[in-house]
Design a protein that fits this description.
The protein has 298 residues and is an all-alpha fold. The chain is built from 14 helices and no strands. It is globular.
């Protein structure tokens, strides 16, 4: 996906985009919805909760729309100044170049999502309404600024926000159907949130070398101690997996453990990888539930 420092030049719009499947998975904004849909199903499976297919389809569409819109908004400055690309990455340039196609996709996805939402159970709709209102407020704080390219104008750290909103959306379908599992699922949700935050912090660190003065103070602190954070999250997740090994929920902690460990390895080796491959690999690291499927109960 990205590299240690944005490498886009003053004329990136003419630069060919990678065509490899992993790169396109990232550039088309399919990475985050894939992770969200897999984890939503994985959490429900571990909790012995059945999720109808329309729940997973709704999850995929909603997350794809949010991420595609976020990248389009990040790149909107190019409409006013096509050469102002200093703080943009390949994903932003790709979305800007194909903005009509993405806007059309968002339109059709929103129509489909609107048709599916009435099928969701009332409790899930209630929780998603609350989460959606908070997310909308966050979008305003992040994007409603005079100079969209200036990271210093952000009122909230995106890395921390993703670590809150993303896991919450993923655990809602299961918790809405089985409220009694809230406490049991909470530590697993926190550890998955930690893995998501580490994912975002790692990406930011790779794209913005120190001292990162424009970043929020929590982002500077997190990126300065990224290896320690990833190691700690890995260790705690492994401990929880061992402590809950008699429960059907143990794969959740182990998957979070493997994700944090993979992100730690990527961080230690990030200078050896192609920037876009590295960025895609950061999200690929969150697909660890696939590795645990053979050990999950029917």
């Amino acid at each position: 996906m990205q590299q240690s420092k944005p490498v886009v030049t003053n004329a990136p719009a003419t630069k060919p985009q990678p065509t490899r499947a992993l790169h396109l998975w990232h550039l088309l904004s399919l990475d985050a919805p894939t992770v969200a849909t897999l984890w939503a199903w994985f959490v429900a499976r571990a909790a012995s909760v059945h999720l109808p297919p329309y729940v997973l389809v709704s999850m995929f569409l909603a997350v794809w729309m949010l991420y595609a819109a976020d990248r389009l908004l990040d790149a909107r400055q190019l409409f006013a100044n096509p050469l102002h690309t200093d703080e943009l990455e390949p994903r932003h340039l790709f979305h800007h170049r194909h903005a009509p196609a993405f806007l059309t996709g968002i339109l059709f996805a929103s129509i489909t999502l609107a048709a599916l939402l009435p099928l969701l159970i009332p409790r899930a709709l209630e929780l998603y309404s609350i989460l959606g209102a908070l997310l909308f407020a966050w979008f305003l704080l992040i994007h409603a600024r005079a100079t969209p390219s200036s990271a210093s104008n952000r009122r909230l750290p995106k890395e921390l926000a993703v670590g809150i909103f993303f896991p919450a959306a993923i655990f809602i379908p299961t918790v809405a159907r089985q409220p009694g599992l809230q406490l049991a699922l909470l530590p697993h949700a926190i550890l998955f949130a930690a893995a998501c935050s580490i994912n975002c912090l790692a990406i930011y660190a790779w794209e913005h070398p120190a001292p990162r003065l424009a970043a929020h103070w929590t982002t500077r602190l997190g990126t300065a101690h990224l290896s320690a954070l990833a190691s700690t999250a890995t260790a705690i997740s492994l401990i929880l997996a061992l402590l809950t090994r008699s429960s059907t929920l143990w794969p959740l902690a182990l998957a979070a453990c493997l994700s944090s460990l993979t992100l730690l390895i990527l961080h230690l080796q990030h200078q050896r990888l192609n920037p876009i491959t590295l960025r895609a690999a950061a999200d690929l690291a969150l697909l660890t539930p696939i590795l645990l499927l053979p050990w999950m109960s029917k």
